[in-house]
Design goal:
261 residues, Rossmann fold, two-stranded parallel ribbon, 37% helix, globular, binds NADP nicotinamide-adenine-dinucleotide phosphate
Length: 261
């Protein structure tokens, strides 16, 4: 069963799991506890994959309650349903559960979110663990994919409109292609429960990432480009549990090729 099936990652998951029962936001609102539990119990899935989320990082500073309802408490309801139905829960979390004070983070590292979105996603991890042991929480980062708004598309839109596009050079992370993440999810589905860090390989700054997309980009610092939500300086997720995914540059090439096709 796939929840959040209409989102950027959700749509790619639906391609990888064509026989899954799929629920878009319109079809199942994950904040409706009774309905969520009832839907999972009635359908008796082996696995529930939750790709539904509140993903507006800056807006979350003004809407933390809403972000927590969707990213925090709702995953707990899904976990309750999974526990009653005997299903495994696969859920996605984020690099933003960390504060960015270390160059990279492994799965067991101490969390300490520095923005409202990160706090809401950490709450989701905690609520899941309260209700079931049979979960896989996949932390990922800097997603881009065909079926949602993302950084790559923003750069391609801005590039012809501006002489130079300023992009921050002091936040480091790992861009991740949703098509790759969906395939990797299928690959690890029978592994041990627990927390996984899954991203494309290779570390870069947003400036490096932008430079691989458009020609007219210039670096700036986070101070030159203030945003409502603070971002961690380092948000590199190191995967210590499974084989690495391909380099983000190879994934980006494929994404750009498919966009042009
Ligand atoms: N995007 C990133 O860079 C990034 C980075 C790290 C981790 N993640 C995590 O990866 C996962 C997938 O992210 P994504 O970028 O694919 O997100 P997305 O494109 O924003 O998709 C999220 C989906 O959830 C749906 N949704 C929102 N509220 C809902 C609710 N109450 N009930 C049911 N569905 C609801 C949205 O529907 P509407 O559009 O109709 O609201 C949308 O279809 C999320 O857990 C996210 O936190 C994302």
């Amino acid at each position: 069963m796939i929840l959040g099936a209409g989102g950027m990652l959700g749509t790619d998951l639906c391609k990888v799991f064509p026989d899954a029962l799929k629920f878009t936001h319109h079809e199942l609102d994950i904040t409706e506890r009774e309905l969520v539990i009832k839907t999972i119990r009635e359908n008796k899935p082996d696995v529930v994959i939750n790709a539904a989320a509140y993903t507006k990082v800056d807006q979350a500073e003004d809407e933390e309650e809403l972000a927590c309802a969707i990213n925090g408490y709702a995953p707990g309801y899904i976990a309750e349903g999974c526990a009653l139905a005997g299903a495994t829960l696969i859920h996605y979390s984020t690099d933003y559960v960390f504060d960015g004070s270390k160059p990279e983070y492994i799965e067991s590292d101490q969390t300490n979110p520095i923005n409202a979105y990160g706090r809401s996603k950490l709450l989701g991890e905690q609520e899941i663990a309260k209700h079931t042991d049979n979960y896989m929480i996949i932390r990922t980062s800097w997603l881009f994919g065909k079926h949602g708004r993302n950084f790559v598309d923003t750069m391609m839109r801005l590039s012809p409109q501006m002489e130079n596009v300023k992009v921050v050079n002091d936040q480091l992370g790992r861009p991740t292609y949703t098509a790759d993440l969906a395939l990797k999810t299928a690959e690890i589905i029978d592994m041990e429960p627990g927390i996984y860090h899954l991203t494309n390989s290779g570390t870069c700054s947003w400036y490096d990432f932008a430079s691989a997309i458009i020609p007219n980009v210039i670096p700036c610092t986070s101070k030159d480009y203030p945003t409502k939500a603070k971002r961690p300086r380092y948000s590199v997720l190191r995967n210590t549990k499974t084989t690495p995914m391909r380099h983000w540059k190879d994934a980006l090439k494929e994404y750009l090729k498919e966009k042009r096709a």
